[in-house]
Design a protein that fits this description.
This protein has 383 residues and is mainly β. The protein contains five helices and 25 strands.
């Protein structure tokens, strides 16, 4: 048989088989009750959604192109207000301001269910992982800074009755343009186990160095990211470090106290290990910034030198740290707390209560990272 005829016969046989299998598949589909398919065969976004999509933004209410809010020094602008039940799904900001320190001076606060105590109280830069007050483009699962100065948050923030967000300019100079887009969903109801999102800022400038012992079992002098009472789970932290002296700053272990105020139940092996890097992130002359889904060090400048700067993040989305009564997340500053560097951090967690008591927020001027070089000591001290 000529080769061409053999090829045509083969294709006819394949076509007949395909037609038979397609017909059999059609008969099987017709016989299967509608809606009896396995929900796992479709991603959630391809299925019917049971919410109403909404956005609140800084758009020009006159129809013009002045799509941002000015915020005078000392003023507060309400940037979101909605009745529930609902879920904030995405926050985007970009800011044009006179002050070079506006990322440390503008404070974001969120209030759930009409409470007068905030569940988020964080300088805007720190909230988005820019803990040292400078823009750095990076990508992670929940936060990013997109080119050139676009700040994005993808943490889900549920509320049952109401949600309110504000931006306060605690600096001495005007914020000329605060652009905001906040996407959210209005839902028929929230699950009974839905928890409230919290974010808390802390700093110690400087940490107090303890050199009387090279052992640390109780974490008494550790840096504290968050301490809270209730039920919930920790999602992660961001941390900015400004070194006051030379050498590696990251020998400190993470120590997390869960439902027991006396003994940590989670003990790590080093700062860079907690942030899922390794070996001093590459060391004094080989440090390499990185930004991954759940961990990163997107900013590394002058590694292991006085004045060196690090911005770090770690998300526990693979295994949120659960607590039923009490949580205190801590980290040593140097081995057994032997270093006196400046730490600026934010902890992010969910809790059954819509608010918790936060320590007082440091004033704006104290939040700005500063060093004062001490002549002849090869190091620096905070200004």
């Amino acid at each position: 048989m000529p080769l061409a005829d053999a090829r045509r016969n083969f294709l006819r046989r394949i076509g007949g088989f395909t037609g038979l299998t397609a017909a059999a598949g059609s008969r099987a589909a017709a016989q299967q009750p509608q809606g009896s398919g396995d929900a796992r065969t479709l991603p959630h976004y391809a299925r019917e959604q049971n919410y109403k999509s909404r956005k609140q933004s800084s758009y020009d209410r006159t129809g013009g192109n002045a799509d941002a809010w000015p915020i005078e020094a000392g003023a507060t602008k309400e940037i979101f207000n909605s009745a529930g039940p609902g879920i904030i799904s995405h926050i985007w900001f970009t800011i044009a301001a006179e002050s070079p320190n506006h990322l440390k001076e503008v404070v974001i606060r969120a209030y759930w269910e009409g409470n007068d105590k905030p569940s988020i109280e964080v300088p805007v830069g720190d909230f988005f992982g820019l803990n040292l007050g400078q823009y750095t483009v990076y990508q992670s699962a929940f936060l990013n800074c997109s080119s050139v100065k676009a700040l994005n948050c993808y943490f889900a923030m549920p509320f049952r009755k109401s949600a309110r967000l504000t931006a306060t300019n605690e600096g001495t100079r005007k914020v000329g343009d605060f652009y905001s887009n906040i996407d959210y969903q209005l839902v028929p109801a929230l699950p009974a186990d839905a928890m409230y999102f919290h974010a808390q800022y802390r700093q110690t400038t400087p940490n107090v160095a303890h050199t009387e012992s090279d052992k640390n079992l109780d974490g008494r002098h550790n840096y504290v990211y968050v301490e809270t009472r209730g039920r919930g789970h920790l999602m992660g932290v961001t941390l900015g470090v400004l070194q006051n002296t030379d050498h590696w700053m990251g020998e400190g272990d993470d120590m997390i106290f869960v439902d027991d105020e006396t003994t940590p139940v989670i003990n790590g092996t080093g700062t860079e290990d907690y942030f899922n890097g390794a070996w001093d992130f590459g060391g004094r002359d080989g440090a390499i910034p990185f930004a991954h889904l759940y961990n990163g060090a997107p900013l590394i400048v002058d590694a292991e030198r006085a004045g060196g700067r690090y911005c770090l993040y770690r998300w526990h989305a693979d295994n949120p740290v659960t607590f039923t009564r009490y949580l205190k997340h801590t980290m040593e500053h140097g081995h057994a707390n032997d270093r006196a560097d400046n730490f600026f951090s934010v902890a992010y967690w969910y809790q059954s209560e819509p608010f918790t008591d936060f320590p007082p927020l440091p004033p704006a001027a104290a939040r700005i990272p500063n060093l004062k070089v001490v002549a002849g000591e090869g190091g620096a001290q905070p200004a």
